[in-house]
Amino acid sequence: MILFRLMLIVGAMALLSFLVIQNIVPSGELKIAHDFQSASPFVSPIYPEGRTEKLSDGVIVKEEPVYFDVRIPRKFSGAKLRVYYENLGADVFEAGLETTPGQKNFNFRPLQNKFLDNLDWPKIFDENYVLFARNGDFKTLEEFWRVLPPKDKIAVYRAPFLYNFKIPGYAPWGGERKIDTNLAGSFKFYTYIKNEPLNFKFVFRAGENFSPISARIFSRGEIIFEKEFVNLADTSDNLKHERTFRIFKDNLSEGAYLVEIAASRDILTKTIFGTPHLITFAPPLVFGVLDRGTELLTSAQRLYVKRLGDRQISFWADKREYELSELQKKYDIDISGFDRELKFLFFDGGNLEIDGDGLFAFAWNNYFNPTMPALDQAAVRAGLINYILTGYRGVASRGDESVAEADFDLQSVAASVNRKIKFVLSLPNLPSGAPGVKIKKVEVEFSGERAGWRWVRGKLRKLF
After folding, report:
1. Is residue 10 a part of any domain in this protein?
2. pTM for the whole thing?
3. Which of 390, 423, 455 is the last residue of a domain?
């Protein structure tokens, strides 16, 4: 009897230890694979169902975007997504990782780009980049970075451009700038610093139980500042739910910096105060419900505008009016015919999302553009672009099946803390009714810190 009880105790302890080890993943490495033919405890079906067709050998993506979720037992620092698929007719196939839960803000990576696959330019590689050079005039990427051709001759496709952007003769204006924004959820903007701190104050409105807000500052692709704001003080007794948070970084070298704010969609950033006067926003911009008109400037050639609320909205692009009559419809607006770099935009209030292929500013004297031109096939064919810098390395094919990989950084992805991350599969510019891709299998290889004594001690410190 005693022996039997002892065996029960030992068995229970062994089972508990096994479950704990499985949850901790001591090696710091985990591989999850799924073919979407049956239910999985780790990987969701591809959704929404209306954009897919399930077959015995895969799932056809007919419309984009589609999503799938992956559940993980702990936080990891990186993930490699591997997709096994058959391309039925898509020119571009991309994958993205959601950076903030519920916001549909994704970091995209290329899986396949047929234009680049068929481009016969000489190309050179390093660990992070592929450079296509029309005339083959560089032997190494180090030489390219050192010489750096004119900005308007370079196009970038899904790769951070890490050049040292400078504005000749720039001088700070001094004083504090105010921008009324009413932006909902996450957003990001570029600013320019010289002999002054990067100093911004954000005034936002939220409900009683709002999620934390996080801020990051990037310099040439690297994070130089990161902070999460949890306990945020009220700014006024009369405005119970209006609060502020501030980011400050001093002793910065001259150049352009990217500021990224991650927040849930129910948080409205009403106003931004800052000492730097150059502030240019990257798309998309989501505006909370407004009862006033809003003016914007953009360098975009094409806009994608969506009405999110019931209120009817009139939208103007350089005095040409567009009625956004249908709720949640993405309106494709071509403004490439205007013969100036910056186009004037206006909408008369409401709840709106604006995306596009350029940058946005709230005033003429806020605008600057530290980015390289995005890949434009027409510009390449016209001889306007001589260099294409990308992270895309092509795909491996075996018969009709292709295999593509994409690496993602999970260290600052809020979703990974909640043990679920969301991937998106996108087929940009896929014509309506055209065949897309057939997904046969996905694999995700996660990597992170080994669960040694230092890892356990860190977890215990957070608990106690």
Report:
1. no
2. 0.74
3. 390
